[in-house]
Amino acid sequence: MKKIYTISIILVLFAAVNFAQDSTAAKVGEVKDALTGLNESYLETKATVDALKKIKISGYIQSQFQSIESDGAATFAGGNFAAGMHNRFMVRRGRVKFNYDNDLTQFVVQVDITEKGFATKDAYVSFIEPWMKTFGLTAGIFDRPFGFEISYSSSNRESPERSRLFQTLFPGERDLGFKLEVRPQEGPLSYFNLKAGLFAGNGVNPETDNNKDFIGRLGFSFPFVDENLAIDGGISAYMGKVIVPAGKSLITVNSPTLATTTIPSDDADRSYLGADLQLYYELPLLGRFTLRGEYISGKQAGSSSSNASYTAAPSGDIYLRNFMGYYLMWVQNLGEKNQFVLKYDVYDPNSDVAGDDIGANAAAKLGAPDIKYSTLGIGLVHYWDDNVKLVFYYDSVSNETSSKLAAFNSDLKDNVFTFRIQYKF
Amino acid sequence: MKNIIVLLLLAVFAFGFTADNKVITVKGSDTMVILAQRWAEKYMESHPGITIQVTGGGSGIGIAALINGATDICDAPRPMKASEREKLKARYNTLGVEVKAAKDGLSVYLNESNSVKELTLQQIKDIYTGKFTNWKQVGGKDAKIIVYGRENSSGTYVYFKDNVLGGEDYTSTMQSLPGTAAVVNAVVKDQNAIGYGGAAYAKGIKYAAVKKDDKSPAYTPSEETIKNNTYPITRYLYMYLKVRPTGEIKDYIDWILSKEGQDIVTKVGYFPVK
């Protein structure tokens, strides 16, 4: 009887163990299936997240307070003051940039939203060939490939505004066209890059003629990593034309006594040559600094009242002036949070005449657009955190004086103080 | 004008120079995080007035933190990219200071039961770009290759892509994991898996011996093969700073490069630079 009991118990236990093993195997199978499902789900989610990661949104807002020496003064520090006003609040820039970055191809749109309205800043496509990753093409509205200051972002620039020289020659910095970029990835040529293209020549405004302006820059960048020294620079050229309207004259204002007036058979020249250099190094005790300089000279096609580049089809006589301008800028780190800024820029819109030449003879057709300006800027930049920076900046502006030109008998009251808060993300 | 200059000078002093403190922050590579923690622990034992905070997150995140001013030191197992140096230049007028802190053999992990013992660089590339999907294509059994790798914020991910894949994209079937330990863990559990990462993490798996090409001898990562650069995927482990170090940070870097600091490199499983 005992044997029967024992055998029965063994059989029951054996069945129980078998059942348990079957049950465990089934559960392991279920878990495996669940894991496979999770893995498939993860791969699908990853593909979606990878696609979304290509969409990049960035932007910055610059809000500022400014005070200028006299009511309604003209200034390059963010646009002229309104009549009767010598201080103001303004949103200088309110940028939002959308970038779909597919590694070698990019879609970029940037807009500017301020109290003045809504403006397009960038709208371009660009791609890099996949084999050597050396040649790239960009088409649309984007920064002109000339010099350094144009392409140096306003969110990074230590002075509130670009030099008068650049604001005059390249209003809005951008133009409509295409450019080829050559940037070798390896070997000695990787220290050099070339950007060159053809542009409409009207800034972000629609094209108004058949002329295409050539703009190009051959740049270099020598990083001496062990010495923590960087020397960058380049030479740039602008070769363009401005149409002289039918029945209008080309007036070359290069003499203190008599302007040369012709009815041209060809369009007016707009041609600049420039060179730029940037040095990044360290001063004993003071720390890291950068020294930047840029020089441009050439022929500028303007009007009787302005030496600025045309951004629309001209309607009057074209005034041709030989110009020259440069800036020097020193940015000194003061610890990690502060930078001291000193900038000096000069723009002589007519380098053939000076002082009392201007306004002395009506036949010379010289006036306010021929007056030379220099600006000494001094400032402090404080980086509050990763996103916020504060800028305190004072522009001391000096103009050439002429006893023959009533508005310029003395230095204008147009020094301006700017306090800016920037948020960037 | 004088008033404005006085105001500016006052502003300089009001904001002041960044006050030095005795907290050193280290952020970056997950590959280097254990090494960085061991250095920090040992250094703090003998320097009780110093606190060293170490966090991982990946080299890309560490370099971004360096650029944003959120860390004093960034650890990275790859050289800084030109685009990253440009950002440092724009914000701090510097190219960054590079310190070679240790050497590593970027290892290819296989499950211990895998019959494959060695791979050429080309075979590794073919597996990770998706050209080879079955172990029999590289002399193993007939089984699907399960590919594990790192996330794209990882310096190891970038180094492997640039130096082994020749810049080509990883296969879309690669499962990206958030750290080298996770890659090792996945390879331990899956007999058909392959992964990559630092030599210091290899527990419970085996290294694939790596050959430059068919005709070259195969090497596994070891002190000797990494020191004499015969192991084909040898790399430096870097520390990056914004500017030349001074004060407590300089003392810490000097200590890392001293015999005591380099002994810890060996103990953790990497290789000294000297």
Provide a descriptive summary of the structure in words.
The complex is a heterodimer of chains A (about 425) and B (about 270). Chain A is mainly beta and about 425 residues long. Chain A has 2 domains: about 1-55; about 60-90 and about 160-425, Porin, CATH 2.40.160. Helices cover about 15% and strands about 45% of the residues of chain A. Chain A has a 16-stranded antiparallel beta barrel. Chain B has about 270 residues and is an alpha/beta fold. In chain B, the strands form 3 sheets. A 5-stranded mixed β-sheet of chain B has the order 2-1-3-13-4. Chain B has a 5-stranded mixed β-sheet with strand order 8-7-9-5-10. The model of chain B is unreliable at about 15-20 (pLDDT under 50). The longest helix of chain B has 14 residues, at about 1-15. The interface of A and B includes residues 153, 289 and 394 of A.
Helix content of chain A: 10-25%
CATH topology of the largest domain in chain B: D-Maltodextrin-Binding Protein, domain 2
Largest interface: A-B, 40 and 34 residues
Shape, per Cα inertia axes of chain A:
elongated
CATH architecture of the largest domain in chain A: Beta Barrel
Summarize model confidence as the mean pLDDT of chain B.
88
Strand percentage of chain A lies at over 45%
Q: How many separate helices of chain B?
A: 10
Ordered list of secondary-structure elements with their pairings:
The complex is a heterodimer of chains A (425) and B (274).
Chain A lengths: L1 H51 L2 E14 L18 E15 L3 E10 L2 E12 L6 E9 L20 H6 L4 E9 L9 E8 L13 E12 L4 E14 L7 E3 L7 E3 L5 E16 L3 E16 L15 E17 L3 E11 L24 E11 L4 E12 L16 E9 L1
Parallel strand pairs in A: 10-14
Antiparallel strand pairs in A: 1-2, 1-18, 2-3, 3-4, 4-5, 5-6, 6-7, 7-8, 8-9, 9-12, 10-11, 12-13, 13-14, 14-15, 15-16, 16-17, 17-18
Chain B lengths: L1 H14 L7 E6 L4 H14 L4 E5 L3 H10 L4 E4 L5 H11 L4 E9 L1 E5 L6 E3 H8 L17 E5 L4 H9 L11 E3 L2 H10 L3 E5 L7 E3 L1 E3 L6 E2 L3 H5 L6 E8 L5 H11 L1 H10 L6
Parallel strand pairs in B: 1-2, 1-3, 6-11, 7-8, 7-9
Antiparallel strand pairs in B: 3-13, 4-13, 5-9, 5-10, 11-12
